[in-house]
Amino acid sequence: MLGNQSVIYNEHETPTIASARDVRTMTTETPFDTPSHALLLTLLNAFPGDVTLIDVDGTILVTNEAGAHIISSTVAESVGINFFDTHPPSHAQLHRQWIAEVVRSKKPVHVETERIGRRLRESFYPITDQGVVIQVLAVSYDVTREVQAEHERSRLTETAAQQMRILDGILSSSPEHIYIYDREMRYRFASKSALATLGLKKSELIGKTWRELNFSREHMGPLEVNVQRVFGTGTSMQGEMVWPSTGGERVYEYVLSPIYNLEGEVDAVISATRDITERKRVEAALKDAERLAGIGETTTMIGHDLRNPLQALQYTLELERIYFNAMSADAKADPRIAKATQLFSNMEQQIQYMDKIVSDLQDYARPLKLEAEETRIAALIDTTLSVLTIPKSISVHVDVPTPITATVDPYLMQRVLANLVLNAVQAMPHGGELAIRALMEGDAVTLTVRDTGQGVPYEMKDKLFSPLTTGKAKGTGLGLAVVKRIVEAHNGTITFESEDEKGTTFMVTVPASRAA
Q: What's the burial of 342, exposed, middle or buried (CB within 10 Å: 0-12/13-18/19+)?
C-alpha cells in the first residue's frame, strides 16, 4: 500500500507506513502530482543520499533523484523496477540477504559496501503493518570522500605523532635542559634532563606555572620577564639564572627563542638551558690565577727586599735586649726603662708577623719541591713552637703518646704547623687553650691543632682554603692556602671542624712510617 501515506516512528524508532492505496496497481505512469506525493518527493530529494522504498520482493515503489540517477533513470520511470536488478549479481545477492534479515528480525541493518569505486554506507529500515514487514526503506550515502579524508587524517595524525616522537627524542637526548612555555608561563614541554633537575615527573610539571609549583620568585621572576619580552618582540634572548640544588646553588645559562604558529604569531617560547656552574668556577679560578701571577712575579723581589731589613731589625732588637740585660738593677727600676721588656716583645711579634707574610708569599708562588725525610713528629712540633711567640694567656697542650714518624719535608711541615698555630693564637685574643696532638691511624699520621677561640664564620667556611680569602682585620689570606698546597704536595688531606664561640680544630693527615 502506498497512496495517501505517511511515514511515522513507533516507540522503538522503527518507521511505520500507513497507506490507503493498492500499490499492486502502480505502474511507471503513476502520476506524482498530488500534494502528498510532491511533498514526499521534495523531502526525499533534499536528502543527501540515495533513498528508495521497495516492497519485500524488491520492487521499487518510490525513489528520489539521487536513487534514480544511480540506475540511470528518472524518478517516475524508476517505479516498478526491481531493486535487486539495479545491482551487480554479487551485490544483489548481498542485498537480498540484508533485506531478508530486515524482514525476519524487523530491525534495521547497517552495512558498508563498495560499488564501482565508491564507498557506500547503506541502511535498511523495516516498515511494518500490523506487525508484518511490508516494505523496506533503503538509504545509502556515498562516503568515499569521507573515508578518504579519514584515512588522510589518520595518516597525517600518525605522521605528526611520529614527528613529535622524533622531536621529543631529540630534545630529550640533548645535554641541555629544554623547556617550552606558553604566554601564561605554563610548561608545555620539558626534556628528561630538565625533569631530572627539577625532581619532577612529566605529569607533575606539564600544564602548570612556576607559581603553582611554588618555585622561587627570586629565581623564576627575571626569567619570566625575558620570556614575555620574546612573546612581545619575537626576537631571541639569553641570560643567566641561579637554581638551588642539594650540592649548593647552580648557575644556568639560557637561550629563549620564539615558536610561531601558522598565522605567524608567537605561540610559545622554547628555552635551551645549560649548567655553566663549572665554567663559572673555572673563570673565577682564572681571575684568581691572573692576580696570583702578578704576586708570583713580585714575590722574589719582595722576599729579597724585605728579608734583609727584617733581619737587621731582628739583630738590632737582640742587641738592645743584651744592653738592657746588662744594665744595673737600679737602672732597670726606672719606670721608663721597665717598659722596654713589653716593647721588645711587641717588636718581636711584629717582626715575626712580617716574616710570615713574606714566607707565605714565597711558599704560595714558587713551585714546591719536597725534600722528604723520616721525621719525628714530636721534634717537629717542639721546633715549631720554639720559634713562635705565644701569649701567656694561652695555655699550650701537646699530646704525642708514641714516637711517631712521618716521611715529610720537615721545613714545609713546620710552615704548616706554624700557620695553624698562629691562626689559633689569633682566634683567641683574650686567651684560651691550644691543643696539638699526633695520632697514628693505619698507614697515616693525623696532626690536630685545636683552639677554643671564636670559630670560623659561616660565610667563610666554604672558601676558607681559597687564596686571598681572610676574615681577619689584617692578613694576606694566603696562610691556609699555603697550608693546603703543602699538605696536598705530601699526598695528604686537611679538614676542619668549627663551632661559633667554641673553637676550631684543623686535622692534617699525611702518609706515615714507624720508627725502627
A: exposed
Q: What is the pLDDT of residue 170?
A: 63
H or E element in which residue 136 lies: strand 132-142
Helix (H) or strand (E) holding 460: helix 458-461
Residue partners of 222: CB distance under 8 A and separation at least 6: 239, 241
pLDDT at 513: 67
Q: What is the secondary structure of 284-316 as a DSSP string?
A: HHHHHHHHHHHHHHHHHHHHHHHHHHHHHHHHH
Cell numbers given for 336: 721608663
Which amino acid, residue 354? M
- Rounded to whole angstroms, the Cα distance separating 453 from 426 reads 8
- For residues 141 and 112, the answer to whether their CB atoms sit within 8 Å is no
Per the CB < 8 A criterion, the answer to whether 380 and 414 are in contact is yes
The angle that helices 277-326 and 340-365 make with each other, rounded to 10 degrees, is 150
**Which residues, 6+ apart, have CB-to-CB distance to 18 below 8 Å?**
5, 6, 8, 129
pLDDT in tens, 122-142: 899 999 988 899 999 989 888
What are 151-188's pLDDT values in tens digits? 888 887 787 677 666 666 666 666 678 899 999 999 99
- Residue 58 CA, chain-centre distance (Å), reads 72
Residue type, 79: V
**504 DSSP β-pair partners:** 498
d(C-alpha 119, C-alpha 115), whole Å = 7
CA distance 496 to 245: 24
